[in-house]
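Sequence in, structure out. Go.
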Amino acid sequence: MDSTTKRLLSKARLKAEVEEFIRNQLRDAFIGRIDVTTTPIGTTVTIYSMRPGLVIGPRGKRIKELQSMLEQRFKFENLQIVVSEVERPELNPQVMARRIAQAMVSGVRWRRIAFWALRRIMEAGARGAEIVISGKLTSARARSEKYTAGIVPKSGYYATRARKGVAHVQLPAGIYGVKVIIYPPEEPLPEELQVKGGGEGVGP
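Output:
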């Protein structure tokens, strides 16, 4: 393995660890995406939250505590934390996964909350959505139920444009998993593409 590959893997591992740590610390803030950007002059962590006020805390106390913990745990120098609000939470799969998980903790049946979330996602303009809830749903054996709407590409280039979010919740019967996949409104669908060429000036 060459040095470039090692560096990229190390960067990806660091981002994953930072993201997991932040999500555990800010479970009540409905975190969407977390970006970690490292440059020679320092590191910037951008947190997209449905509730930015909870991330910042009274007089900035909570975000200062988070910054201190990140600096100590990951040895960051010149760390800057930026907090941005999730403008369309219904199109953010991580936020929607957390919403579903929280509703299940409150006692809402998974089918009801899954259909509610699916409807909200599609009403927000998504081209397609898929929700998968896994766990001991109706018996002692774990299984999964899938709820879909619209079009969600499963392979090729278009599948890479879909956004994914995952959340886990502890209930009396065990741990349940929630996966949300959203194909956003700004992404094209295969049938919308047109082959270039064959325009004016083409004759028999």
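Check: Confidence is low (pLDDT under 50) at residues 193-204. The chain is about 35% helix and 30% strand.
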